[in-house]
């Protein structure tokens, strides 16, 4: 157990941190690897909002380039339908319903931005697009990086606060096809979350999270989709006063490099109407894998949930990692 004081306004948060990637990754062969990151922060303005990012830094020519997808909370981005359906397996409801299509969230994409990466005593200074990121080594986990600061490069730019983020060096996976065996394991994790009811100004709530791919099964009609149906959380069951299920669907990136980030698409949601089908509003999570020796050892992710009521989306930034 360790205590960290690395996120602004979040004091001494105790967590258990695990690592699998060798600490020597910081001094050996960065140019042959990619740096995958997830990040979030608050924009301090008359109309404050929050921004999420997923990014991948890689060598290009004699320097660095970065692909970034940015998600603005103020846009309350709607989900986009994919051509595959969920396969919920529930013992509740009459099944007189149809599972809805998987969906995803698409942000503003910036491909092959010229970037600058400077190694510091405590981590890295990254310049990409209009932003400067300050990444520091995890104090108790030198294989991971934590986002300490974010600011605009141009003088007089927007002011930001509440930076939170995670990054790992990874083998280059942009042109490989993933197999289940590469990630069929239990992953521990950390998540920084803003509930849609909290508004844009509140602090991130940082808690533990996890993902166990061993519990997922391939869909009978579409084996590329992995599904997991389980009981709702006890507090949700108590509030709803009935048995309801939660369903998760995971769709790996199916094709090699296509001009965008190659993330795993994870969508999950409660069966609040208890009809046994995934036919209600869900949550969208995009997970960038971290690869070492042809095995996925971690993910960094951004989660964005469109809100139909007050227009304030639910936002999360996090990571999964294999425990030792």
Describe, in short, the structure shown:
With 324 residues, the protein is mostly beta strands. Helices cover 2% and strands 52% of the residues. A nine-stranded antiparallel β-sheet has the order 14-13-21-20-19-18-17-16-15, with no helix packed on it. Strands 3-4-5-8-9-10-11-12 form an eight-stranded antiparallel barrel.
Topology record:
Elements: E1 2-4, E2 13-15, E3 33-44, E4 49-60, E5 63-72, E6 80-85, E7 101-104, E8 108-119, E9 123-128, E10 131-138, E11 141-152, E12 159-171, E13 186-194, E14 205-212, E15 217-218, E16 226-231, H1 234-240, E17 245-251, E18 264-270, E19 283-292, E20 295-305, E21 314-321
Antiparallel strand pairs: 1-2, 3-4, 3-12, 4-5, 5-8, 6-7, 8-9, 9-10, 10-11, 11-12, 13-14, 13-21, 15-16, 16-17, 17-18, 18-19, 19-20, 20-21
Gyration radius, in Å = 19 Å
Secondary structure tally, helices: 1
**SSE order, one letter for each helix or strand:** EEEEEEEEEEEEEEEEHEEEEE
The overall number of domains is: 1
* Beta fraction: over 45%
Distance between the termini: 14 Å
Extract low-pLDDT stretches.
1-28
**Count of individual beta strands:** 21
**Percent range for helical residues?**
under 10%
């Amino acid at each position: 157990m360790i205590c960290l004081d690395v996120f602004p306004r979040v004091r001494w948060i105790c967590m258990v941190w695990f690592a699998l990637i060798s600490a020597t990754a910081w001094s050996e062969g960065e140019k042959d690897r990619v740096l995958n990151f997830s990040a979030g922060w608050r924009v301090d303005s008359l109309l404050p909002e929050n921004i999420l990012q997923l990014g991948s830094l890689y060598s290009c020519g004699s320097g660095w380039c970065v692909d970034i997808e940015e998600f603005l909370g103020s846009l309350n981005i709607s989900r986009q339908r994919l051509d595959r359906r969920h396969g919920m397996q529930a013992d509740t409801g009459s099944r007189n319903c149809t599972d809805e299509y998987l969906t995803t969230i698409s942000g503003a994409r910036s491909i092959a931005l010229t970037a600058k990466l400077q190694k510091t005593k405590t981590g890295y200074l990254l310049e990409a697009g209009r932003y400067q990121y300050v990444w520091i080594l995890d104090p108790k986990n030198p294989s991971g990086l934590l986002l300490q600061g974010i600011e605009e490069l141009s003088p007089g730019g927007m002011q930001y606060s509440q930076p939170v983020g995670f990054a790992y060096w990874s083998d280059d996976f942009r042109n490989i096809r993933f197999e289940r065996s590469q990630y069929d394991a239990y992953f521990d994790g950390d998540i920084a979350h803003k509930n849609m009811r909290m508004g844009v100004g509140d602090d991130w709530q940082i808690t533990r999270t996890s993902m166990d791919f061993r519990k997922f099964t391939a869909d009978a009609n579409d084996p590329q989709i992995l599904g997991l149906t389980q009981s709702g959380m006890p507090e949700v069951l108590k509030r709803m006063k009935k048995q309801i299920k939660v369903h998760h669907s995971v769709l790996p990136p199916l094709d090699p490099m296509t001009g965008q980030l190659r993330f795993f698409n994870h969508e999950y949601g409660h069966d609040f109407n208890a009809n046994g089908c995934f036919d209600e509003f869900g949550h969208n999570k995009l997970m960038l894998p971290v690869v070492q020796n042809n095995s996925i050892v971690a993910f960094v992710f951004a989660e964005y949930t469109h809100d139909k009521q007050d227009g304030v989306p639910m936002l999360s930034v996090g990571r999964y990692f294999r425990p030792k």
